[in-house]
Specification:
16 strands, eight-stranded mixed sheet, single chain, six-stranded parallel sheet, Rossmann fold, 2 domains, globular, alpha/beta
C-alpha cells in the first residue's frame, strides 16, 4: 500500500468544524487504499480570533479516524504580500513535515494557491508526483490577479493529475494552459445514509419549527460573494407580497453583522431566522423541514450543499455559475444570473408555492465510495505515468 500525504487547509481542525466535509469523506474512504498522513495548517489569525487554547499534544498532533493529522500554525501578513503567501505557507509547515513524515510516494493537495503551490515545492524536492483538487474560487477568482495567475499556472503544469468538481471548472483549468488529458471531472460524492428524503412533520417537530410552513433554507458562509445579501434582498421583495413562509440561514461568516442588521432594519424578523452554524450530520433534518434550498453565489465550483438538497428531493434555486447548471436538470427553470434580485424572488416564489415546480439532478450523484474509487484509479495512473517519465 502506497504512502500518501494530504496537505491542505480545506479540512477540519480543532478550530474549524464543517470545513470541507467532501474532503473529509473522500479521505475517510481513501484510507483503505493508501497509508495516509495529513498536514492541516491553521492560520494564526484563526487561532487568535477563536480565543481557544489547546494543550501542546492536541495542538501539534492528532488522530482523525485512524489517520495521523498534524496542525502546524500558518503565519502570513493579512491582506498584504499575497505573492509571498505560498512561501510563508511552506515555511510554516515544512519543519512539521520533516519531523513527523517519511517522504510519501504521492503528494495530494486541495486548493491551488497557496496550498498546492507550496506542496509542489516539497514534491519537486523529493522527486515525487503531486495530484491536486481544485474547488472553485482558486480557479475562477484568484487567477484574475497576474502574480497569482502565474503561480497557479505553474502548479497546474507540474501536477500529475487535477481533479475538478465540475466540467465548467475543468474548462477554466484548461483555459489557464493546462494539458486537458490530466484534468478530470470528479463529481463530489454524497453519503446516501445521511442525505435522503424524510418525513417532514417529524423533522419540523425535531427542530421545533412550525408545522407545514413553506420554508427556504440557505446553507453556507455569510458572505457577499455567496449571495447571502442578495437572498435577503429577494426575500424582502417576496415578503412585500406575502409572509406565509420563512427563511432559515444556516452558517456563519464575515457578513453576519450585515445580515442581522438588514433583517432588523427591514423588519424581516418574522420571516428570516438566522440559525447560525449546525453540524453536518444534522443538516438532513433541516433540509427535510424545508421546501427549497437557495444559493445565489457569484462564484462556485460545484457546492456539495446543492447535491445534498437534490438527494433530499427539495427544490433548488441558485445561480447559473460553475457546475451548478450541470447538477440541476432543467436549469433554466431553477437558476438565475448572479445579482438578478427580481428573477431570484420570482424563482423562490415558484419553488415555494407552485406545486408543478420540482427539481431533479442533472447527473447520477455518486456515493463517497464511488468518488474515492475514481480518485484512487486516476491517482494510481498518475503515479505510474510519473515513474515512467522519471
Amino acid at each position: 500500500m502506497k504512502n500518501l500525504s494530504l496537505i491542505t487547509t480545506f479540512f477540519a481542525s480543532p478550530y474549524h468544524s464543517n470545513r470541507a466535509p467532501y474532503n473529509e469523506q473522500l479521505f475517510l474512504q481513501l484510507k483503505d487504499m493508501y497509508n495516509i498522513k495529513i498536514i492541516r495548517p491553521i492560520a494564526w489569525s484563526d487561532i487568535r480570533a477563536s480565543g481557544k487554547k489547546l494543550n501542546k499534544a492536541e495542538y501539534f498532533e492528532g488522530d482523525w479516524n485512524g489517520i495521523p493529522i498534524l496542525f502546524p500554525t500558518y503565519y502570513f501578513i493579512p491582506r498584504y504580500a499575497m505573492r509571498f503567501r505560498a512561501t510563508m505557507f511552506l515555511m510554516s509547515m515544512r519543519s512539521t513535515f520533516y519531523r513527523y513524515h517519511d517522504i510519501p510516494d504521492i503528494f495530494f493537495s486541495s486548493w491551488a494557491y497557496p496550498d498546492a503551490y507550496a506542496t509542489m515545492q516539497l514534491a519537486k524536492k523529493h522527486n515525487r508526483p503531486m495530484v491536486m483538487s481544485v474547488l472553485g474560487s482558486d480557479i475562477n477568482v484568484l487567477p484574475k490577479h497576474p502574480k497569482q495567475r502565474e503561480k497557479i499556472q505553474r502548479v497546474l503544469e507540474f501536477a500529475s493529475a487535477i481533479y475538478s468538481p465540475s466540467e465548467a471548472l475543468r474548462k477554466l483549468v484548461i483555459e489557464l494552459g493546462c494539458d486537458p488529458d490530466k484534468v478530470h471531472v470528479v463529481y463530489s460524492g454524497i453519503d446516501n445514509a445521511r442525505f435522503f428524503p424524510r418525513n417532514r412533520d417529524e423533522c419540523e417537530a425535531e427542530l421545533g419549527l412550525e408545522k407545514g410552513k413553506k420554508r427556504i433554507i440557505y446553507v453556507g458562509n455569510y458572505r457577499i460573494a455567496k449571495g447571502t445579501m442578495d437572498l435577503l434582498y429577494a426575500v424582502k421583495k417576496l415578503a412585500s407580497k406575502r409572509t406565509d413562509f420563512e427563511v432559515l440561514l444556516i452558517g456563519k461568516g464575515e457578513a453576519e453583522a450585515e445580515v442581522r442588521n438588514y433583517v432588523a432594519t427591514n423588519q424581516l424578523d418574522s420571516v428570516v431566522n438566522v440559525v447560525g452554524e449546525v453540524s453536518h450530520h444534522e443538516l438532513n433534518t433541516w433540509m427535510n423541514a424545508s421546501d427549497c434550498l437557495s444559493l445565489p453565489s457569484y462564484n462556485e465550483g460545484l457546492p456539495n450543499v446543492v447535491l445534498e438538497a437534490l438527494k433530499c428531493e427539495i427544490n433548488v434555486v441558485a445561480t447559473n455559475v460553475g457546475g451548478i447548471p450541470e447538477a440541476v436538470a432543467d436549469s433554466e427553470m431553477h437558476l438565475v444570473n448572479p445579482g438578478d434580485i427580481d428573477a431570484l424572488a420570482d424563482k423562490l416564489d415558484a419553488a415555494l408555492f407552485d406545486s408543478s415546480v420540482t427539481c431533479k439532478p442533472g447527473f447520477e450523484i455518486p456515493t463517497y465510495q464511488q468518488m474515492a474509487e475514481r480518485v484512487f484509479k486516476l491517482t494510481e495512473q498518475a503515479h505510474e505515468s510519473f515513474l515512467k517519465r522519471h
